[in-house]
Design brief:
The protein has about 240 residues and is α/β, with parallel strands linked by helices. Helices cover about 45% and strands about 20% of the residues. Strands 3-2-1-4-5-7-6 form a seven-stranded mixed sheet, with helices on both faces. The longest helix is centred in the C-terminal third of the chain and has 17 residues.
């Protein structure tokens, strides 16, 4: 059972940049369920997409795996033989806890959890790659470079699943969706102080793109098909097929 997220519940004199440290690891499941609308639906559907797109004797990658929710969903969905899941995260605290979660359940599909920078990973023989709220933490240049590397490492017909927070070019729509997200957090028990302080901590490290920018990248890289398959307020998920 997850501890309750109270990281930003008391006034903080100097708010630093948000990091995925041990404090966040302890409350991460509670934090993400109460902060990201539709998160459980996305995780469930990642398993469904893995079942559909995993090819025999191929690799499936969870880049920015955190505590392994998408990894475990993929592992439950896979019906093909000879598959391997590779989860990668640059937070030592996340990786340590993720390994415990993965090892708690027996499975025929092997899982390797690696502490590394996803930008330095070799992607090869991949049928499924997941970036679940990960790309938005990289610089814009690194985003394109990583997506190019993923495309090169995907088998023909392979799928990239990209979940992100979005910004919208229409200012009225963008502000409404931000307000609805804050309403969602209030409904889940976060105070005005928590919402404000978390926003200050994360705004320098998470710089979301518009759906249009994601589409432009996919087209430029060469993906044959791409679309938004889920959206709730200003959070959503897209697929891109090679």
């Amino acid at each position: 059972m997850s501890n309750k997220d109270t990281i930003f519940s008391s006034p903080i004199d100097k708010i630093g940049d948000f990091t995925f440290d041990e404090r966040v690891v302890e409350v991460f499941p509670d934090m993400i369920q109460r902060s990201v609308p539709g998160y459980a639906n996305i995780i469930s559907a990642i398993g469904m997409l893995a079942e559909r797109f995993a090819k025999p004797h191929s690799n499936l990658y969870d880049l920015g795996c955190s505590l392994g929710a998408a990894t475990l969903s993929m592992r439950r969905g896979i019906k093909q033989e000879g598959c391997k899941i590779i989860g990668v995260d640059n937070s030592a605290a996340m990786v340590e806890r993720c390994k415990l979660h993965v090892n708690a359940y027996r499975s025929d599909t092997p899982v390797e959890i690696i502490e590394a920078d996803i930008r330095n990973m070799t992607i090869e023989n991949a049928s499924v790659v997941v970036l679940n709220f990960t790309l938005q933490f990289l610089s814009p240049h690194d985003r394109f470079t990583l997506l190019e590397k993923i495309y090169a490492g995907l088998r023909p017909g392979g799928i990239l699943i990209l979940s992100e927070k979005y910004v919208f070019e229409n200012q009225v729509a963008n502000e409404l969706l931000i307000d609805l997200h804050h309403d969602f957090k209030r409904a889940n028990g976060y105070s005005e102080l928590e919402i404000s302080q978390k926003r200050s901590a994360i705004e320098n490290v998470m710089r979301p793109d518009s759906v249009e920018i994601h589409r432009e990248r996919f087209a430029k890289i060469g993906f044959s098909s791409y679309e938004v398959w889920f959206q709730c307020f200003n959070f959503g998920s897209m697929f891109a097929i090679k």
